[in-house]
C-alpha cells in the first residue's frame, strides 16, 4: 500500500448480518454500511476503511477487503470482542427493512485514532453508525468534501448528537422515510429543504426501487432506479449507492454539478448490482465493463428530446 493519502475514506459498521427476505435467508451474511460502501467504491478509487471487528470476523471474511485492495490500516481487531450484529427482514415491499436485532458489540467503545495518511483523505464518507463516532472521525480528517448517512435507529435514539454531526458535513445521503422522519415533514421537497438548513448543502434522497433525487438550494436532479426484475436482497443498497456516488466524486476529484449528476447514476448502477444477491456476493464478481454497460443504459432510458 502506498504512503499517499487514501483518496476516499469511510467510517461505519462492519457487520455480520442475519437476513430474511421473501426469497430466502442467510444466517451469517457479511454486511455493515462501511463494508458495502468500500466494496462498491473500490471500483472507482482506492478506499480506506475505519471500523472495528471482533474474533468472529475470520481471515476468510477479511478477503472481502483484501481481494478489492481496500486499505484496512484503520480496521481494528479487538481480541475477545464480537463483531457488530444486525438481524433484519423484508416483506414483499423490499424498500423497507424491519430490524429484528441490533448489537453494537465492539462498536460500543470504539474510539479510533486515525493514521496520519487517513487524516489527509480529501473525500470522507461517514457511513451509518453512532453519530458521535461519525463526528469524532470527521474532526480528525482534513477533508475537502464530507458526506454522511444515518438511519431511524439513530434519528430516534441519538437525535441531538446526529444534529451536531449533520452541522459539520457537506452532504447527506439518506433514504426517503428517514429524510421525512429527520425533518418532521411528510412532503419530500419540504423535508429536503429543511435538511438543507441543518448543515449540508447537498441532500441525496434514496428512494429504493423508485430511484434517487438530489437537492441543493439552487438545483434539483432526479433519476429512476435501474429497471430490475430480480431483486433478491436489498441490504446494502443504500451503502453501495453511496460507494458509487463518493467513488465517482473522489475519482474525478471534483464536486461540480455535472460530476454530482454522474455520481448519482454510478450510485444507482452499483446499488442495482448489489441487490441481485445476498451480501456483496454480486459485487465481488462484478466486472468494470458491467458498470459501464448499465451506466449507458441509464442514459438511454432517461433521455428525451425537447
Ligand atoms: P442499507 O441496506 O444500505 O441501509 O444498510 C444495511 C447495512 O446496515 C447492514 O449490512 C447492517 O449491518 C447495517 N446496519 C443496520 N443497522 C445499523 C445501525 N444501527 N448502525 C450501523 N449500521 C447498521
Q: Gist?
A:
This protein is of the alpha/beta class and 306 residues long.
Task: Outline the fold blueprint.
Blueprint lengths: L7 E4 L3 E7 L2 E8 L1 H9 L5 E7 L5 H8 L8 E3 L6 E7 L6 E7 L12 H4 L3 E4 L4 H10 L4 E4 L3 H6 L1 H8 L4 E5 H8 L4 H8 L6 E5 L5 E4 L4 E4 L13 H16 L4 H18 L6 H5 L2 H15 L4
Parallel strand pairs: 1-4, 1-8, 2-6, 4-5, 8-9, 9-10, 10-11
Antiparallel strand pairs: 2-3, 6-7, 11-12, 12-13
Give your account of this protein's structure.
This protein is of the alpha/beta class and about 300 residues long. The chain starts with 7 loop residues before the first strand and ends with a helix. Helix 1 crosses helix 9. The chain is built from twelve helices and 13 strands. The model has no long low-confidence stretch (mean pLDDT about 95). It is globular and about 60 Å long. The chain has a single domain, classed as UDP-N-acetylmuramoyl-L-alanine:D-glutamate ligase, CATH 3.40.1190. About 40% of the residues lie in helices and about 25% in strands. The chain has a nine-stranded mixed sheet with strand order 5-4-1-8-9-10-11-12-13, sandwiched between helices. The site of adenosine monophosphate has 18 residues, from strand 2, helix 1 and helix 9.
Amino acid at each position: 500500500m502506498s504512503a499517499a493519502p487514501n483518496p476516499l475514506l469511510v467510517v461505519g459498521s462492519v457487520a455480520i448480518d442475519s437476513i430474511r427476505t421473501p426469497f430466502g435467508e442467510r444466517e451469517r451474511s457479511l454486511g455493515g454500511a462501511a463494508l458495502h460502501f468500500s466494496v462498491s467504491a473500490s471500483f472507482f478509487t482506492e478506499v480506506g476503511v475505519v471500523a472495528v471487528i471482533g474474533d468472529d470476523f475470520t481471515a476468510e471474511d477479511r478477503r472481502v477487503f483484501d481481494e478489492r485492495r481496500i486499505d484496512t490500516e484503520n480496521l481494528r481487531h479487538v481480541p475477545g470482542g464480537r463483531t457488530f450484529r444486525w438481524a433484519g427482514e423484508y416483506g414483499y415491499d423490499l424498500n423497507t427493512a424491519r430490524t429484528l436485532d441490533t448489537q453494537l458489540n465492539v462498536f460500543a467503545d470504539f474510539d479510533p485514532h486515525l493514521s496520519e495518511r487517513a487524516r489527509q483523505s480529501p473525500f470522507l464518507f461517514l457511513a451509518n453508525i453512532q453519530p458521535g463516532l461519525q463526528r469524532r472521525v470527521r474532526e480528525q480528517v482534513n477533508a475537502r468534501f464530507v458526506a454522511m448517512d444515518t438511519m431511524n435507529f439513530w434519528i430516534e435514539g441519538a437525535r441531538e448528537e446526529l444534529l451536531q454531526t449533520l452541522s459539520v458535513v457537506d452532504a447527506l445521503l439518506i433514504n426517503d422515510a428517514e429524510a421525512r422522519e429527520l425533518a418532521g415533514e411528510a412532503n419530500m421537497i419540504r423535508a429536503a429543504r429543511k435538511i438543507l438548513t441543518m448543515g449540508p448543502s447537498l441532500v441525496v434522497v434514496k428512494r429504493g426501487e423508485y430511484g434517487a433525487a438530489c437537492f441543493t438550494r439552487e438545483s434539483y436532479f432526479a433519476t429512476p432506479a435501474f429497471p430490475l426484475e430480480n431483486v433478491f436482497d436489498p441490504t446494502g443498497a443504500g451503502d453501495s449507492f453511496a460507494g458509487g456516488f463518493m467513488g465517482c466524486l473522489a475519482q474525478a476529484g471534483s464536486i461540480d454539478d455535472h460530476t454530482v449528476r454522474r455520481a448519482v447514476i454510478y450510485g444507482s448502477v452499483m446499488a442495482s448490482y448489489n441487490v441481485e444477491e445476498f451480501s456483496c456476493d454480486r459485487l465481488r464478481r462484478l466486472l468494470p465493463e458491467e458498470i459501464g454497460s448499465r451506466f449507458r443504459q441509464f442514459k438511454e432510458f432517461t433521455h428525451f428530446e425537447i
